[in-house]
Description:
single chain, alpha/beta, 10 strands, elongated
Amino acid sequence: MAKSYWSIVENRRGSSQRVVQRQVLYLGEINDSQKTAWCRCIEVFEEPRGEWHQVVLFPEDRQAPELAHEVVHVRLSELQVKRPRQWGACWLSGELRQQLQLDDFWRERLGVSREGTDWLDVLKTLVSYRLISPGSEWPLHREWYLHSAMTDLLGRSGEAMELQSLYRCQDKLLAHKAALFSFLRERWQELFHAEFEVLLYDLTSTYFECDPPTSGKRRFGYSRDKRPDCVQVIIALVVTPDGLPLAYEVMAGNTSEKTTLKSFLGKIEKQYGQAKRVWVMDRGIPTEEQLKDMRDATSPVAYLS
């Protein structure tokens, strides 16, 4: 018995003017009913009768199979694509926000400015951009926003996203950092049954190719990136074994690793309460004195370094 295997392909003309097919999706072996389901259907409104009915689109140069719906042949050579934009990833980003209930969290904390800027819409755009095509705010403002489906999903079709609004929105988030991490911890525990008994603590750095500033956290220090000629900042992060971040801090570039642990232990206990946690960290982070304090504490802190 012969078997049929199906693929969705796209015809492309190569440099030699020979038409080649690029496989877009491999469907494998499918039966007749599954084949029919893959034929693309649309709904057409018949104005005189005031009714909707299904039709099937099919290229005009091919014979359509026996289908349950009316067949409409399409002249593919006369079709044009206008303003194509990325839809699926933007929609998925919104679904993830809904699952985490982040819109509910931010709606009561971010309002609308006197000029009419909806800060929640700006935040949704920033989060989607970071998730789909991470980059700086400039390409988001200049290109990505108008070439994505965010304008449609936010109901702002044709409107631009102001560059200054992108920067100002991020300034508004910092005041709610602690509340956000506590909220996310509860959602992660509810959704994924996440455990927080084992925490990983580490530090990294990022450098800046610029003139040394006279103030701020950008300082010369030990460079993990082998760029001692550049100023840097130190980033400390606490995550679970599943990679869920519980806290972070941006510190001055000349901060010593050995001076950061005690403050982070206190930070986690203050925000999430005391618990039997196991800390995992590089051996170079804690000092012998700090390890002794952890062992001799009223509630001893377990560690692995």
